[in-house]
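Margin note: ligand = calcium ion.
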Amino acid sequence: MSRILIAEDEPRIASFIEKGLRAQGFATEIATDGVTAYGRARSGEYDLVVLDIGLPEMDGFAVLKLLRADGAKVPVIVLTARDSTQDVVAGLEGGADDYMPKPFRFEELLARIRLRLGGERSTDATVLRSGGLSLDLRTRRANVGDTVVDLSAREFALAETFLRHPGQVLSREQLLSRVWGYDFDPGSNVVDVYVRYLRGKIGTGRLETVRGMGYRLVEKD
Ligand code: CA
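Resulting structure:
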């Protein structure tokens, strides 16, 4: 049974998450401030941490920073305020594995938790390919030629979206809705930031900027 730590100070939200997870067979514990959350998260007793950013005593960013500085590898899903792209980018750069903007539906959080725990996935292996770049959707592994490329969950989802639409121009709004799955401010630059990360990992020439429109996967070979 997977054990999940819920670091959330709002009783209504903590209880909503806890009830949902217990109904799915997870063991849960709630921490209502950052200091307690940090102490429990670093204990190694949890398989995953759901971490609110706005916590008393020590905020979620500080908890995350300390955990990663300790070398704790426990997957962390950060709960962020809606419309706070800065929180998202800072959270992911600070070592979060994923994030969940508030308000959210329980199923959305559950899907992210299952993904991070490596839970049930489709058994039919699917590999998407384009000119030496391949993504194995089952193992979440990316390769360029024979070289394994280490992509974050978000980078992988972004690459997957491009590979599913080869040669097609995808607008920032399309990429936001497909990869981030949440109504970001269209003025947000999170897509540009992640395209830059991805280019750095899979090669600059694969993703073409189409000025004023968006990005396109260049079909090589
Ligand atoms: Ca809070």
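The two ends are 47 Å apart (CA to CA).
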